[in-house]
Amino acid sequence: MGAWQDIDDKEIQLDPQIARVAGASAHITRNYMDPKTGERAVVLALYGSCAEAFGHVPENCYPAAGYKPYKGPIDGEIRIPGLKQPVRYRWAIYAKREGDISRLEEVYHTFLYNGDWVPDVSDRWKMFRYHPSLFKIQVAHPITGGLPKPGEGPITELLSRFVREVQDRVARSSPEPVAPLTAEAPPAS
Fold first, then answer.
1. Which tens digits make up the pLDDT trace of 88-106?
2. Has residue 17 been placed in a domain?
3. Which of 67, 97, 98, 161 has the least C-beta neighbours within 10 A?
């Protein structure tokens, strides 16, 4: 994924019950690090049922895990060369107390639903019977320095690279025409 390297060389498995509740029929979760900057991130790429997965967004799941909203959520978009429409995402920072320390985590997520990259599919529930599955990409980044701004910083590059990879794989495997992305151009933010 560009400068980002998989640091565990293995996939992290979601708890089977969590995967089932989230509607995941397939997923990967990996830890990445940019060796130049030392930045770390965890990426979840999930494929599953819209009816079950659409509500599993950070603004619901992070508070359920003991985090509190710190900043956001804020919707934004990034343009990726070779993709006609911008990728719309949702960004937020969550905080969790661990002893005397607050741990801050920056989180981006987006869904690929019926050809569109969007941060929320809940308003499309009437289409779930016609398009019953989706992809979700979520990138979580522990904040160790100053507070990042939405759409800025190294995490948007990692999100862009995952979007490119999913888009290209969907295009190669889909019986319906899906526009693949062009060759390796750096993602724009």
1. 999 999 999 988 888 999 9
2. yes
3. 98
